[in-house]
Every structure is written in C-alpha cells, then in structure tokens.
Write a structure and sequence with these properties.
It comes from Parabacteroides hominis. This protein has helices at residues 4-20, 23-36, 46-82, 90-110, 133-152, 182-186, 282-312, 347-351, 356-373, and strands at 121-128, 156-164, 170-178, 191-198, 207-219, 233-238, 254-262, 269-276, 324-329, 334-337, 343-344. The strands form two sheets. An eight-stranded mixed beta sheet has the order 2-3-1-5-4-9-10-11, sandwiched between helices. The radius of gyration is 24 Å and the shape is globular. 45% of the residues lie in helices and 22% in strands. It has 374 residues and is of the alpha+beta class. Strand 10 (334-337) and strand 11 form a beta hairpin.
Length: 374
C-alpha cells in the first residue's frame, strides 16, 4: 500500500496546481466572460463571438481538469483514512493513488502549454533530405509515424500536399493536424531527423545515414489577425497527381502560391512557396493555401518574439529550428533526442507513433522556459 509521504505528495501537488493555474481567479473570470455572451447583440459580430466562445471554452476546460484532480485527491484521502477501519482494501487505496497521480501528472504536463499558439491546430511539413530514394523512404516513414500519433490522440488529419518519391517514399508532404493543443505538443518536433540503418536499397547491404526535416507551424483560424500584402501574392495552377479518379491529371486543380515576404524587422526578403492538392476543387485549394500562408506568417511573428526574448535572456538554452534533433538507429535499437538526452530501445513503437515520451521530455525541459517568456 502507498505510504503517508506518497499521499502528502499528491495533496501538495494538487494544491500547487490550484495556485499555478489560478483556479479561483479563472472561476471568477469564467462567470464574467459567460455574462458577456448573454448580451442580446452578442451574435451580431460572428468573429467577435467566436473569439469570446473560445475564451469561455478554454477557461471551462482548465477548471474541469483541475476539478478532476481535486476530486481524485479527495477520494485518495478518504480511501487512505478508511483502510484503517477496514471499509476499503489496500488494493483500492493503491488504485485511487494510481488514478490521482495520473491526473496530477497530466495536468502538470498540460500546464507547460501556456504560450499563445500552444492550444492551436498545426501544419506539419516533412521534406526528404539529400540522398534520393533512401531519404525519400525515410520521409515517408516519418509521415506514417506522425499520422499514427495523431490518429491515436484523436486528431483530425488532412493531407494538404503530397509528392511521391522517384522510386519509393515521398519528396515532401504537408499535413493539417486539427484539434486542441496539436501545435503545443508537436512544436518540439521542428528540426532534422536522422536515420541510420542497413539500407534495403543498397545492394551491398551497407549502413546508410539519411535525413529528413520536419517543420511545424500553428494552423491559424479566422479569429487570428495576420497581415498579408495581397500585392506580394502570385498563383500558378497544375494538374494534381494521385491514384484513381477520372479527373486525375486532367483538371488543373492543384495550386501553387508564391508570396514575396519582406521581414518587417530585418528587411530580408524571401519567397514563400505553398502547394496545395488537398481537393479536386481549385477554389477550395486556394482557400487552403491562403490558410497555410497565414499560419506561416503568424509563426514568423512568434519566432521573432522568441528571438527578442532570447536576446534579453541570452543565458538561457535555446533550440535552433534547423538543427538535428533526433537520431533513429535501427540496428542498435535506439532512438535518442539530442536536446533532452531522452532515449528508448522501442524503435518499432516509436515508428508506430509512440512519441509521447519524447514530447513530454521536451516540454518538461523547455516548456517552463517558454511559459516564463509569455
């Protein structure tokens, strides 16, 4: 059975969460925000109403999650007291402890996601590195990994762009992963992913190293204001490829958006290129491409804020967005994150989408820094 120290640990962490999350303040704020929705003209401005309802929903969620922790901690306290009287068994106390500690740790973890963009959906793009078929195959394996992760966590997935490799795998793919906190959980996946394996594409059976890059940006909605210079946009159309369907390669439904971006802070210029083949409807693909552009521009603003904060707090450890973040060494049965040093021998599990431990290790190490910057 659990010890009194374990019981006190849960109770202390539950109270600490009440303070960290300012549950009392959130409860008062929720009442005030809900009163605003009762205004007779509330729904006349749909955009403003949507922003307000998101605020209400977010406050409710934090309060509900804390209340679950509070209830579990109270149940644990009662079970611990009643076991002495023989009303509950030691096994029931341990079961109550397991439930309480799981809820406490889950809320502590979620508390790391307090940045403005963390609660948003995300766009995840994978590009194969140099190396032809080997790297393209590796990129497709990463695509499968993230798809499996998203499916297992109940996120909605849509493929915004998909370009097959020359012989196998993919050259590039872009996923929209929609649901609460998709960006917060996946933002640490930005960077270069390195594969080491005995290549099935090498006749000599040599050990090969391949690279693929992953880019994750928040998927913004209409409630987020993003400035776009319409004069900097140009469009091309092309025939979408893919398997099946009589429209394939006959209708130019694919769109290519080029945006001449000028950094308002540095004056540097670059071309942002977005391709969308998500549907057979060209206007819909244009709309989706514009949504991705807004996400990219929003992300650039976020990165500027992070860089400015980094200048102020130069001593803090920072993650370079283009750096190599993780190695997957198949024949040594090892996947290692180079930022946190977390590693596992469950290579098959990781490639099947079991990356939560990597996500948690990243957020536990760097999430507190990011939250402090807010």
């Amino acid at each position: 059975m659990i010890t009194s120290d374990q019981l006190h640990n849960v109770l202390e962490r539950e109270q600490a969460l009440r303070g960290y999350l300012d549950i009392d303040g959130k409860t008062i704020q929720l009442e005030e925000e809900e009163l605003r929705t009762h205004d007779p003209g509330f729904w006349e401005d749909a955009k403003r109403a949507e922003v307000q309802m998101k605020k209400v929903k977010e406050l409710k969620k934090w309060i509900e999650l804390y209340n679950e922790v509070h209830a579990a901690a109270e149940e644990l306290q009662l079970a611990y007291d009643y076991v002495k009287e023989g009303i509950v068994s030691e096994e029931e106390v341990d079961e109550a402890y397991g439930k309480a500690i799981q809820l406490v740790e889950s809320l502590e973890f979620r508390n790391m996601l307090r940045q403005e963009a963390d609660q948003m959906s995300c766009v995840l793009k994978i590009n194969s590195g140099a190396g032809g078929t080997e790297s393209q195959d590796w990129a497709s394996m990463l695509l499968r990994m993230y798809t499996r992760w998203a499916e297992s966590n109940g996120y909605k997935i849509s493929v915004a762009n998909y370009q097959e490799g020359d012989e196998a795998g993919i050259k590039t793919a872009t996923l929209n992963i929609e649901g609460d906190y998709a960006y917060g959980y996946l933002k640490g996946e930005n960077g270069v992913h390195r594969l080491v394996r005995v290549s099935p594409y090498n006749a000599q059976g040599k050990r090969m190293t391949s690279f693929a890059s992953v880019f994750v940006t928040p998927l913004v909605d209409d409630t987020i204001e993003v400035k776009i210079d319409q004069a900097a946009i140009s469009w091309d159309t092309f025939r979408s490829g893919g398997a099946g369907g009589q429209n394939v390669n006959k209708v130019e439904s694919g769109v290519r958006l080029r945006y001449q971006f000028k950094d308002p802070y540095t004056g540097e210029e670059e071309e942002i290129l977005i391709e969308n083949t998500e549907t057979r409807d060209q206007p819909k693909n244009r709309e989706n491409a514009m949504r991705q552009l807004r996400s990219i521009l929003y992300d650039k603003e976020l990165q500027h804020r992070m860089e400015e904060q980094a200048k102020v707090e130069a001593g803090k450890k920072k993650i370079e967005w283009g750096s190599q973040i993780r190695s997957y060494v198949f024949d040594d049965r090892r996947v290692k994150d180079h930022r946190t040093n977390y590693q596992t021998s469950d290579v098959n599990g990781v490639m099947d989408g079991k990356i939560d431990d990597f996500i948690k290790a990243y957020l536990m190490e760097f999430g507190a820094e990011e939250s402090a910057e807010k």
